[in-house]
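Ticket closed. Logging final result for Formate/nitrite transporter family protein.
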Amino acid sequence: MKEKWISSIIAGAYIAMGAMVYLSIPDKIIASFFFSTGILLVLNLHNRLFTRVCPLAAYDRSYRFSDMAIAWIGNGIGTLIVAVLIHFTRFEAGILERVKEIVTPKIGDSPVSLILLGIFCGLFVAFAVFVGGIRQKQGSFAQIFYVWLFITAFVFCGFEHIVADMYYLSVYAFNFPIAPDQILKVLFCVTIGNIIGGAAVGYSIRRLDTSAK
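Final structure:
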């Protein structure tokens, strides 16, 4: 049980670090490309990222609901730890405008929009998990290419990733006024969307693999 929590917290920290790189690069295309570093760390080191656990739970039931809950909470703790540490450095001042630009549309968005954007993100991350993380040799060029392709695509499109949002919201809350219900709306809706998108891909691939045998 302790290992599950540690793995989940570390996964959240990895995504937060990828988000930090993303926030540090002015050009959106290049920034989207480098956000993938966090996902690559998760896939290669087999950490429990919520958006990795969801599609795998639907695919082969290797994860249960309790694993999803631990991953979600642990990922949130990991992003919060990074946000707290960064709050006491000069690095934070350089990303605040970007954070404000990213978070303001989220907290003003409708629940339906957040869920749908979360679904699309869940689809892309699940594609990265299966096409890049499972179907390719670990550390191979093909794995790196496919992961970068799918992750860069969803980040560039502005789709909603719950763990990245946890980090953005944490940094925002430390520096700008935000109501608890606004935070909860984003977290709840994006979580639902990520679950639906990831589970849809995992279930579909399981059915295809079964019919191919």
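The chain has one domain: 2-212. No further action required.
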